[in-house]
Task: structure prediction
Amino acid sequence: MQVNPANGDICYLAGSRLVIYSSREAKQIKFLASRTQRPFQCCRFSSDGKYLAAGESAFRLPQITIWEITYEEIDQIVSKSLSRESTNTTSTLLSQAGETVQEVQHVKKAVAYAEISHLVGHKYGIEAVLFSPRNDFLISLGDPNDRGLFVWDWRNETKIS
Result:
């Protein structure tokens, strides 16, 4: 299970599907499928939340799929109970009645997940994937049968090591 650092959405594994759950909306908002119909073993968002990678647990030639996430900015009205001393400098105050405040929060909502890359190089399952800090590379760790540790130039779908 992973949390998107850009908007707080949660991604979890469900066989050959990834489920995206919005904690703001309290519901599942997206299902991403493996194009090979093989079960996923791991997933990870990039540090900026623009990309999502998932590795398969296949017994032969598993793939890593990478999606690019497109966002739209939305304004959401939220009611909060605040003490009189509390202030929120990042939101615009709409009204105040006693200690209940309604404010507008600017929220990133993921609207599209587009498959942009497929990486093949492991012989058996993939246990973990991780984006580099600047998202230039992807690191993948194979399962105990695979024992591979690879660094990918994922944009060019090239294994570096």
